[in-house]
Amino acid sequence: MRPFYRATHYGMKNSVGYLIRRSSNLLMPQMEALFADESLTFSQWTVLMALREWGQSTAADVARNICHDAGSLTRILDELEERGLVTRARSETDRRVVALTLTTRGLGTVETLLPRVVEFWNGLLGDFTHLEIKLLVKLLSRLVDAADGRRAEPRRRRGFLSHRHENGHEIGHGRRHRRGHHP
Amino acid sequence: MRPFYRATHYGMKNSVGYLIRRSSNLLMPQMEALFADESLTFSQWTVLMALREWGQSTAADVARNICHDAGSLTRILDELEERGLVTRARSETDRRVVALTLTTRGLGTVETLLPRVVEFWNGLLGDFTHLEIKLLVKLLSRLVDAADGRRAEPRRRRGFLSHRHENGHEIGHGRRHRRGHHP
DNA sequence: GCTATATCGCTGCCTAGGCAATGATTGCCC
DNA sequence: GGGCAATCATTGCCTAGGCAGCGATATAGC
Lengths: 183, 183
Prior knowledge:
2 copies of one chain form a homodimer.
Chain A: H1 16-34, H2 42-54, E1 57-58, H3 59-66, H4 70-82, E2 86-90, E3 98-102, H5 104-124, H6 130-150
Antiparallel strand pairs in A: 1-3, 2-3
Helix pairs in contact in A: 3-4
Chain A binds a DNA duplex through residues 29, 41, 43, 58-60, 68-77, 94-98, 157, 178-180.
């Protein structure tokens, strides 16, 4: 395949990287504004969505799915757990693993907020045809896949929890709210 | 226009927001890896590209163009100036404004790094047809425009420097390298 | 059974970047 | 021509998130 870009013609206007970054920088704050009254971060929202969508899973899996730092995710989960939106339960079959579940309250929050998100996107994409949106989604998905394949293969394991539904018992013994908590 | 998304069918796989964020999170680190030996941040790179592309402009304009926090940009410029890649010159016609110019060294850096970037993107988009890439760029541009229009109208002024080429003189009197420098 | 290696969740540390406030300017508008 | 509001670059403050390192556990090789 003949290459698309040439050094002599490469500009920001036709650079996918620049456009991605710019749209990300523009969109994330606008998304967060939708959750202001629930004081949810966009990252927190994404975690809730991920759990709703893929059901029970582990922190490591969620981190990979939403492409987020695992260490940072721990702290997000701390808060979500404290607010009663998700549940952590240590797995019996693999004691390294903590199974995450959306509580009914957490699910409720998602269902409450979802209409706003949908409305936001419908408004934003107001003068895109359905075909164009589908195309955009498809192209972006392929881009993500390509970018994902380029990271030195942290192979995405089959979800260990996807077929078994038995899981351990509660372990919520007093988590600190945030970092920097040193009495 | 009939809306595209519905709350009942909204999932991450078909969500533009999720895809944008994910690709951004995936791509930015990979881009930065390209500049590791020059120890350039992706943000720094973007600033250099912006200056190369739009010629001399002001910090505020660059901040808007690349959609970056102006305060943070000051610090980026501090470093770029210290490394001799850009030049700050206070404008004579509007003394609030500092005109930014890419030095020859800065331009050289861009020219050196550009082939890598081009190669990276050509590789990443290896199994996209040219038409698909053009389509992606066009759709993303429209998305950016839509998202940009939604921010309460911080009206993008005509570049004040775009037609006059006279500008002030040097002002590089000892900038601190980084923040937190308080002797 | 025993060691080496990988993965899990978690923590401390550090930096980039968002936000708000500042002082210096400019232009608007009456 | 004299305020008033907007814009500029800059700064300090604070937080989210990337990174490296940890102990616990699991797995593979022998």
